[in-house]
Amino acid sequence: MSIQRLLRHLRNSFLNLGKTLTRSLSHFIQRGLRSLFQISRQRQAGFVLPTVTMVILVVSLLSLAMLLRSTDRAKNAHNFRVNEATLNATAPALDRAKAKIAAIFEDPNIPRGTPSDTAFMGAFGDLGSGIENYTFGDEVPLKLVFDIDGDSNTGEEDSGATKNTKNDETVNTAWKFPVDTDNNGKFDSYTLYTILFRNPTTSGGEFTRARNPLEARNLPMEGASGSACANNTGGGASLVGDSDWFQLPNEQKLKKAFFVYAATVPIGPNTSGALPTGLDANQYELYPGGTKGFSALEYQQDWSRIPLANNAVVYQDDLLTFAGSNQFFNGRIITNANLMVGKGKNVRSFTTKFFLVSSKSSCFYDPESSKILVGGNVGNNRYDDFAFANGTVHVDELHLFQGEGNDPTFNTNFGKVDSVTTTTVSAKESLYNNNAYNQRISYLVNAAFWLGTGAYPNELLAGRPPADVSEQEAKDYYTKYFKQLTRQVPYIEVEPGDNALFIPTITTGTGIASDGFLASVDSEAKAKDFFKLSHGSETADKTGLDPLRPPHQWMFPVDPDNNATTYMQSKTSSSNKLELELTRIPATNPEELDGKEERIGDRVLVGNNLPETIYIDDSSIEAESRLLSGIQTQQQVTGVKWRQSGSAAPSTVDRTRQSQVVSLPDLGDLSRGGQWEIDAATAPKDKFDNVLLTWSQCHKNSTH
To answer: What is the pTM of this model?
Structure first.
């Protein structure tokens, strides 16, 4: 055998051996892996189903959670739309209710201060007076009835020995008016709303029965208590005597709750499927969609009053603080006329300070309890015009509120020239002439009488025919009515003993004599001429466009069109006039105060001789709605801005003013054996009954 053949044989043998080994190793590995997988599958047998079940369960729960989440979001969005639709539908009713509640407090038929439920019921119409006084043109008054005594006879009046109108089973303070919800020009729903304010009958300051659907659902809500009073809020609201008003813990104010319920109800078909009988198809239609569902809304509004006993000083006429000794005033001050601040003659060493109501740790430490309300203007001189040096400090300290628990700041500029709100420093010119004011009121009352009983307003008639109204009753009504609308008369306009019966800026016209004074009114025609003197061609009876009112120049201290041109001027000389310093007293924009007081004008609120009731000269407003409470009516001060908080620079917001006149309880008949002596001998029913003593009862002072 040759060498080559031997090498070839050896190579083939090695190749065959490699293939054999490779094949054997491959078979061995395959058998091992096959055995391994068989054991693994055997060990996993029985766990597949639970695992799959668990995975399906987790996936299902996650899917369900996501579905519920999306459903909740959809429901929240739906509820938001429903709430918005409900508010939009009932907003007109709420606005009307709020306007009526505000108007009832200005009704001349109810007492000032804290009227009882019976007084409110009478003014609203429950006791026979005209509910039409509080019914808008498109409204229909409704009655609500409830069986209070459970005898199955609803709508009864109280039949007890001592008749109590709170047990009457009917209230008239409900109305309805049509609305067009889809804005297609036809009414398809009715909005119904009611005002409820009655409280249950009481005995010894406690309620004698549970509340019913004809009464306010709850007591007034308690205001936020500061940290100093956080632990002194137990007991809740307490009824004050028989006044139907409540005093809440840590609050000086008396509160009363008014509840408004409003709902917009679709107009549905009658039994024949047609529009209900009595509805004009040109103005009404069935509610589109045919749904019978509707939403209702409950609204609570709490009204508060500060009793006279909670004021440090209450004065009807000019208030002069020029005592010859130290003077310290703590708390709230009210004057319906002018405030003259300073010190007595040659006694500048004495101290005059206006403190806040109490300590910074007191529960009654709040800015409202220490405001100084001035119905007229602020001056710094005495009635004898004693010549103080310009810039002399007349008030040592005026304390300004800086927040709960904080010490007040002291302002030493009150009484300086910058706090005088008129251009004159003469008290003889700016103080008020009460005799001149009374002359104008008497003239107005007499002119109103000459219009005849046919011109009696609804408030005076109170649901009765004119023949049933006595002359004295009509006189008292007109006197009170015109006093609320007529400003005071400063001495610079009418000097002591002079004739006040002229209209500033008007010297000629029907009803004005040749000397420029008003002619006497002795006929209906002359009465109408007088009431038309400053009102153009408008008639002066009930059929006229406007309510009966004094001339503009007797109502406003300045021209309401520009709030600058003064009406407080002498008839004999146009240069003798009382003009307002529009930038005084400096005050901060109320929107920026945050409950604190930075300037004198933040605590001292000046009305500039605006009357208690303001006439809004706007023909777009219904006639019966043009007389508004001066406290609720803001009048823009032309060309003047509020000051910025924390800066001497003016803000961009126009300054406003409003009346600060507060109605004081009527003293009634002051004659011997009259109502004054009767009331003085009557024991107060509760601690908030007012016992007043006027200066005129103690000292008869001369008129200068």
So the answer is: 0.69
